Amino acid sequence: MKSRSQATAACKAGHVKVNGSTAKPSQKVSVGDTVTYRFQGFDRVLEVVQVLRTRVGAPIAQQAYVDHSEPRPEAYVMMAIPRRERGSGRPTKRERRELDRLRGRDTNTGRI
């Protein structure tokens, strides 16, 4: 995590686990502990190798843990989101139905 406030929020939300149990923001870790957390939709698994007593820069902090995470998949292809041109006015009934179909909505009842 990039900041302490983000790490605290992730702990409070239950996204951080130490040795398999949910972690509190102030929980102490020791050498050999496994820290698992969710980051950008993927789980990261880190093993603590060294406990740092003071705040240090990123290169030194990276030496304090071993990353056991599975490699992320190659850049996956995202579908382009259709957008209407600005100033083109309200969508016609036909365009609205096509948009609803793309979004997976039932055009007859308006339900998802």
UniProtKB/TrEMBL annotation:
Keyword RNA-binding: yes
Region feature (Disordered): 82-112
One Pfam family cited in the UniProt record for this chain: S4
An annotated Gene Ontology molecular function: RNA binding
Secretion signal span: none
Comp. bias intervals (Basic and acidic residues): 95-112
Superkingdom of the source species: Bacteria
Keyword Transcription regulation: no
InterPro entries, alphabetized: S4_RNA-bd, S4_RNA-bd_sf
Alphabetized UniProt keyword annotations: RNA-binding
Domain (RNA-binding S4): residue spans on this chain: 2-35
UniProt-recorded name of the protein: RNA-binding S4 domain-containing protein
Organism in which the protein naturally occurs: Gleimia europaea ACS-120-V-Col10b
Organism classification: Bacteria, Bacillati, Actinomycetota, Actinomycetes, Actinomycetales
